[in-house]
Structure formats: C-alpha cells, structure tokens
Amino acid sequence: MNTPAIYTVYLKRRAERELRNLPQSIRTRVDVRVQQLANNPRPPGVVKLFRRRELHRQNPQKGGERPRYGGTTCDGFVKNTLVKHVKHGLTRISGFGKTGISLYSLAGKRLCQNAKTQDFKVLTRLNFNYRSGISSPP
Questions:
Q1: Under 8 Å between Cβ of 91 and 103
Q2: Nearest 5°: phi and psi at 84?
Q3: Cα–Cα distance between 45 and 41 in angstroms, integer?
C-alpha cells in the first residue's frame, strides 16, 4: 500500500530541460529518485551544493586588482559536470590542472588527473554532489 507523499516536488524549467536531455536509461533512474524526494527530501549521502556571497571578492586586493570572479572553468567545461569517460564510465569533472582534467567517481573517489577532452562526452551539469553510490545517478 502506497503512503501519500508528505512533500510536493517541483522542478524548475531548467531542471526539467536538463532531465529531458539525459539519455533515457539515466532519465528513468533520476526520475524515480526525484519522486522519492516527496517522501524523504534529505536522503542519506546527498548534500546540496551552496555558495556563500563572497563579498570580499569585490574589494580590491594588493596592487589595486580584484581577484577573478565566477565559476571555475577550463576550455568551456565547468566543475561538477557529469561526463562519460571511455575508460572510467560515468564520472564527474572536479578540477583542472596543467596535465588535464581531474575526474572523480560519483562516490567521490579520484579516478584520474590527466583526462583529455577527446576521451569523454559531456552529459549534463550536476546540481548536487553525490557522496554515495546509493543516491547517485547510474
């Protein structure tokens, strides 16, 4: 017997669009997890990413220059982007270095620090940081 949902889950238009652009196999699994949020809005292992205001960045530093402002990007890629790597499968971009792009598993384990852009395909931008294999996309 199904119990009625405690909460109502609403998705922003952008999130709905991102969900539509996912491959069908991933979309169904993510959709099930989203619907489960109605009964448990804070499942174990999922942490919402947030950002503080960082007003200190607006003040000039020594030399009268302001530090770089904005997200960390490299060659058009953004941190926390879901990618499919030829060797490691589904991973996420977690940083950029001199030798390449750093990839982590969805469970949080570093896989490599020297991935080349031709070795993976970008799937979508993740809005959450998945810390366990249970709550993560496939």
A1: yes
A2: -110, 110
A3: 12
